[in-house]
Sequence to fold (463 residues):
Amino acid sequence: MSDKSSNQMWGGRFAAGPDAIMEAINASIGFDKRMAAQDIAGSRAHAAMLAAQDIVTPSDAEAMREGLLTVLSEIETGEFAFSTALEDIHMNVEARLKEVIGDPAGRLHTGRSRNDQVATDFRLWVRDQLDAAASGLTALIGALVAQADAGADWVMPGFTHLQTAQPVTWGHHMMAYVEMFARDLSRVQDARRRMNESPLGAAALAGTSFPIDRDMTAQALGFDRPMANSLDAVSDRDFALEFLSVASISAMHLSRMAEELVIWSSAQFRFVTLSDRFSTGSSIMPQKKNPDAAELIRAKIGRIFGANVALMMVMKGLPLAYSKDMQEDKEQVFDAADNWMLALAAMEGMVKDMSANRANLEAAASAGFSTATDLADWLVRTLDLPFRDAHHVTGSLVAMAERKGCDLPDLSLEDMQSVHAEITSDVFEVLGVHNSVASRTSYGGTAPVRVREQVARWKEILE
Ligand code: ARG
Fold:
């Protein structure tokens, strides 16, 4: 305190303040101010506990409580002057508290350290983001279920290798994404359950000799329990890595769906029309309507998975307990969280607004010999051919249709019988795409009856 240029929080043993470059590399206030509300919540819980345990007087604790609320409102209204010299959000808040309430502010840091403080703030912040992701995923699932409900029996081509494979239903395709985003949601819920423990009271690394009550602060902050090991509490960031892993997998799902929307909205496919609200025009080509939101969602996985890799690299090889390396955790998580939430909201908006072009889907479903498997299955069922032979006969019929420039249902019975004499006119029933999808009634299959069951199940879950 005697030397004005040394840090007012830890400058006791320092004769001089830091070099400007030192300050620039050291300070985190530029980004960790996003945790101001969490920092103040943690301090309020700590102050109340200190009073309950007779570590500070009730009047000091009351001064801290009121002062912290004042600081919070200054931050919320934008009046607060953040200082780089004060390094981070923890010291910015405490220094301002000192200006507002005077001496009692100096007692707030009893029995805690910035190490357990930052671990607590960051857990609270990540927990909020997990909750936001759960809402975003639920809303997206709702939008997909609505699409599936509307088009449970619309036929479209199902692809493997992006080559026409077998007809499927629009509803079935939408519900495939519902399953993926539902697993993302369950990963979010798992991660939240696992991370919801309080580091507060671990102090610098070894715990404290003050008679603190860690259960009380844990409860006040909505944690399930205090963390059981103080070294672990201040030194692990696995909860942030789990957040980034869950976000990465979800961003991968979003990216795949976005890619399909890009393909489907092209003039070559015309499977869907995206709304004007989620498209942009070209500055030079007047005819264009670009799926920019889908393209950006497709790309977001890059920075989100990048954050996951970056933080994993920061954490690998760090000895216990706290090291300053760990300050590099926040920007990665902040950026990934912002972009995941944005991608979820944009995808929900696009799915809600888009319209499937039913006629184009059906025309595409019929092209490309998509019912060849149905023909082979018919030969097995009706003529008792081994599947390999049925596959061969069907292959010959596909080749014949290709030569004639027609589709399988357009071949005559004589054409069919020239390849296999026992084929009867009944075969034509299985060559239509509607019969094809209606026949795939196995559990999890594409038949409209099965899709409607899944839609009903999800509507119930969402209610
Ligand atoms: N700004 C620091 C961080 O984000 C807070 C903890 C600092 N602790 C310390 N011992 N220097 O990690």
